[in-house]
Write a structure and sequence with these properties.
295 residues, alpha/beta, Spore Coat Polysaccharide Biosynthesis Protein SpsA, Chain A, ten-stranded mixed β-sheet
Length: 295
């Protein structure tokens, strides 16, 4: 299928997630408004001047939430969009303009392509994000003739998605809150036959904030463990759990994450939806790569 010749702004919108980021937000917004596409900013009940900074950009639609619902706020932004594709963005990064057109064209050409994961460059030194390194080396085979490395994960704050595919799998589950929340979306897409690709010619910039990193580490560990036991066969879930626990520093956050995972065990067992054997084997192949399956 040939790419749509419509302007990019008619095909793609940016959904920006914000939370207590007033001190760094202007630089991000300056880059995003330069893309000349619709921007929907969903603010997760910030208590600083974030909304005032957003209000200084009249071309941005602001959706203020009364409470912080984490990653599920992206669902709210996507519901407001009128384009078939969405570039999700967090408040500490942006996209290079040329890459978004490449992603939209790829989604036009390949109807089974649900998500494009970009090459992420970190900080002013433009270090390649470790997850991008892992994705570029994906050993999974392409059976659909879609350019890019075949992946079963991505970075929630830097990806371009097909709205219809995202809606089909229900978006982000509020129970996951945030950090590692993309795991269930990726696996539900794959279960339904949707394709995910890593494209190094689509570039996102990331200037990670350390403000909430410590608070979110237990959530990331909990969510990764929950996903293992929601989707994997018992044997593969066990091996993945051992690997995940072994690779992380044995800190108070590690203990907290384990406790959080155990506290939700009844919910996990009640909602288990094991993947087809072929997908479970693909995940087993990826288990040797760091960054998966947690992303």
């Amino acid at each position: 299928m040939a790419p749509d010749q419509s302007p990019l702004r008619d095909r793609l919108s940016v959904v920006l997630l914000t939370f207590n980021c007033a001190h760094r937000l202007s630089a991000v917004l300056d880059h995003l408004v330069g893309l000349d596409v619709p921007i929907i900013a969903v603010d997760n009940a910030s208590s600083d001047e974030t909304r005032a900074v957003l209000a200084g950009y009249p071309q941005i639609e602001i959706v203020p939430l009364e409470r912080n619902i984490g990653a599920a706020a992206r669902n709210v932004g996507l519901d407001r969009a009128a384009t078939p594709y969405i570039a999700f963005c967090d408040d500490d990064g942006w996209y290079e303009p040329a890459g978004l057109a490449i992603a939209a064209d790829a989604l036009d050409r390949h109807p089974k392509l649900a998500l494009v994961s970009p090459r992420v460059l970190v900080g002013p030194e433009e270090r390649l994000d470790p997850l991008s390194v892992v994705m570029a080396k994906s050993p999974l085979r392409d059976d659909h003739g879609i350019p890019g490395a075949v992946v079963l994960g991505y970075m929630a704050g830097a990806c371009v998605v097909r709205v219809s595919a995202y809606v089909e799998v229900g978006g982000y589950d509020p129970i996951y809150f945030i950090s590692g929340e993309e795991q269930t979306v990726a696996l539900e897409l794959a279960r339904r036959g949707w394709q995910l690709r890593y494209r190094p010619d689509v570039v996102a910039r990331h200037y990670p904030s350390r403000a909430n990193a410590g608070r979110l580490r237990p959530y990331e560990l909990r969510n990764t463990l929950w996903t293992c036991w929601l989707y994997r066969s018992p044997l593969n879930a066990m091996w993945a759990t051992v690997g995940v626990l072994a690779e992380r520093p044995k800190t108070r956050a590690w203990l907290h994450g384990i406790a959080m995972a155990i506290s939700g065990l009844r919910w996990v067992l009640h909602n288990r939806r094991q993947l087809p054997a072929e997908l479970d084997r693909a995940l087993r192949t990826l288990d040797g790569q760091r960054g998966t399956p947690s992303r």
